[in-house]
Amino acid sequence: MLGVATQDTSLRTSVIHAAGAFVLQMLLLAAVVAACRAGLIADHHAADARIGHASHEPWSRWKAAVFAAIVLATAWFPLQSIGSIAAWLQLFFGGGQAPAEGHSTFELLRTSPSFALASAMVVVILACAPITEELAFRGGLLRALRGMRLPPWTSIAIASALFAAVHIPALTAGAMASGLTTLFALGVVLGWLMERTGRITAPIVAHALFNLINLILFWTA
Residue 123's domain spans which residues? Predict the structure, then answer.
């Protein structure tokens, strides 16, 4: 309807695709919530086996958000170190030097002639992407795996691997090793936050802060 071609890799297309995915997922989420309230969907999440949480009750949203910010700040350098080690191993085994910017979005932001489109993409990066991806992978997939009675860390590992895999098309050439390992490790942290607090708020906040720090480093580097 907006004249966007699937093969188009421009910033405008990326913004439209991301915004469309966000709106669609919010509509689907609303349908699921309505179905749950109507008793059509039962929640079989194994809350009694959450990692490091003796109580069945989830944390308050504010406590979960603050805890997520502290965890992300603590985990930032280890996450970057994991990516650096993967990049070094790639270089050691003849895979070539990893680029400074591993995500194609950064190149689109750098070359965008439109301030409005760049601003829209920043909103996507800081709000839409963390919300949609966390609802999908931690709020949906991880809870589904736990509902199947899989162990917490097994569920987190599966969700984290798929979380990293869906980012493959957005990773630039030469950044696969560092990008995938960093994203997998980030997924583990986000999954642990979900299990620890029982709140989707925690991984959303941590994910948004991770993206924010990357944006700040991108603009200031």
Answer: 11-220
